[in-house]
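Honest question from a wet-lab person: if I give you the sequences of every part of a complex, can you actually get the arrangement of the whole thing, not just the pieces? Trying it with mine:
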Amino acid sequence: MNPYLAGVLLGLVVIAANFISGRSVGASGAIKSAIVAGVETVAPSHAENATFYKEFSQGHTGNPLNSWLVYQMLGVVVGGFLSGVISKRLTWKVEHNPKIQSRTRLIFALAGGVLFGIGSQFGRGCTSGSALSGMAVLSLGGFISMMAIFGTAFALAYFFRKLWI
Amino acid sequence: MGPLVVNEIISENTNLLLAFFIGIGFGFVLEQGGFSSSRKLAGVFYGYDAVVLKVFFTGAITAMLGLLFMSLFGWIDLNLVYVNETFIWSAIIGGVVMGAGFIMGGYCPGTSFCGAAIGKIDAMIFIVGLFLGVFIFAEGYPMWEGLYKAGFMGSPRISEFFNVSEGLFALFVIIAAVLMFWGAEWAEKKFPREEY
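Yes, you can. This is the full assembly:
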């Protein structure tokens, strides 16, 4: 699909979210909810005592998984899958630059995920929840996040070029 | 008048159901835009594929303008819409760490779910990393709680912060985006890659 068209459609999704729910799209928050739910289930006394989980339950009632973002992310999986079916892009593969091995790609995918997991917590959101959604409502925090994410990635691109080109 | 759930035009349960459908739209559009591919996503940093720039900024501008116009027509009350809070140091550090994660992992959380949805194993491993990362943050929280909560600035809109009107700021963003799109089209021609 033409990227500019995809961008317009993405903007419409963000508008719909704001119009219906008074908030915009996101992603990393759903991971946070899942981690809290997991820890509450597996180690409830730890969840009651450790600050992070305590603060979460002070701000949220009920099951952490019963949240807007968690349902939204379930939808993302379905929507992505449907799009993959329609455009015939369903495939099991480790996508990587042919100049590196799958194993290298997977190691860096894991490392990248860990960094994004940590960074999204500091940032109170990721590229979807903080940068994109933030920009849509003119949030200063969102704008700062976006500049920091893209600026850093550009600055580090040279050092990781072997992964991609 | 929107937002529907805040004005109690729809119930919280309906809201959660609609969140699922909004997610379907979000995931569908992201995947259609090619965001299920880490090599496409990373392309903007090397010039060969600026899809991230084009989709992201077109999306941000469409949403920004759409919401401003809807507010003008009285269809939505922007004061009832969530504006994420600004904690300046945490935002910067988080952004830097995420930027590193992006260039190494080639995904961000939303796109990794799209990639995983179509079978990309590197996306699935990225998601495992996400869970680990959030868990590490949660368990180490006492060490960085101070930093996490420092520099609270409320929820300022950029337009308020720079003391310009929202419409004027939106215009600046549009001009900046058009310049970037022009640069992106140039870069894609200058640094082409064969099929990926």
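Two things worth pointing out. Chain B is about 65% helix and 0% strand. The radius of gyration of chain B is 19 Å.
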